[in-house]
Amino acid sequence: MTIALQAAPKAVIFDWDNTLVDSWGCIQAAMNRTLSVMGHPEWDIHETKRKVALSLRDSFPQMFGDRWTEARDVFYAAFEEIHLDYLKPLPGAAEMLEGLAALGVTLSVVSNKNGRFLRQEAEHLGWSKHFHRLVGATDAAADKPSPEPVHLALAESGILPGPDVWFCGDAEVDMHCAANTGCTPILLRIDEMEDGEFDNFPPRCHVEGCETFVALVSELVVPISSI
Prior knowledge:
The chain folds into 2 domains: 11-22 and 90-221, Rossmann fold (3-Layer(aba) Sandwich); 24-86, DNA polymerase, domain 1 (Orthogonal Bundle), CATH 1.10.150. The protein is built from 9 helices and 6 strands. It has helices spanning 24-37, 45-51, 56-64, 68-86, 93-102, 115-125, 148-154, 172-181, 210-221, and strands at 11-14, 106-114, 133-137, 165-169, 184-188, 205-207. The longest helix is centred in the middle third of the chain and has 19 residues, at 68-86. The protein is globular and about 55 Å long.
């Protein structure tokens, strides 16, 4: 699905996990340690990708009931132990952020990863300087797909949520969040869309990778002169 975009964004809000960094291996390892401790069957990578989208405070009560805070503590301990070792930027992500910053586009992150871990990872990669705000789970009153973290991500930027803010992510929850805020939803990932995956909240367009994304924005910021 591709619908032409007519103007460059004033701001771009990125999801983090599996939009800018490859996180599935780390998420699977921390989840499986949690599931094992809680007496649940472990997940393979396909099940992990299918089930992980909402923030922990939204998903764990559904999964673990009254024991969800116990599961939360196990997960956070496991994740903190390994997440920087697993951290790996997706191809072209660092160059994309450099390029967008050079174009003067305001950049923020809205993630359902715990905000403390999110900012640790951005600092570890040397990316914090590129972002106006890095908003993770529990930083706002509610998590993605609520509009609350988007408003926090743009606060004090002088930019309001709307079509000239692009929300880029790899999952339906990102497209849902864009719809809830009036931002332009951009699917940013290599993988093709599965049948029915985005029926409820379709992306405006699908961009296959970071290099393609920064090239798209560059063309809109500096239109090619007609010959």
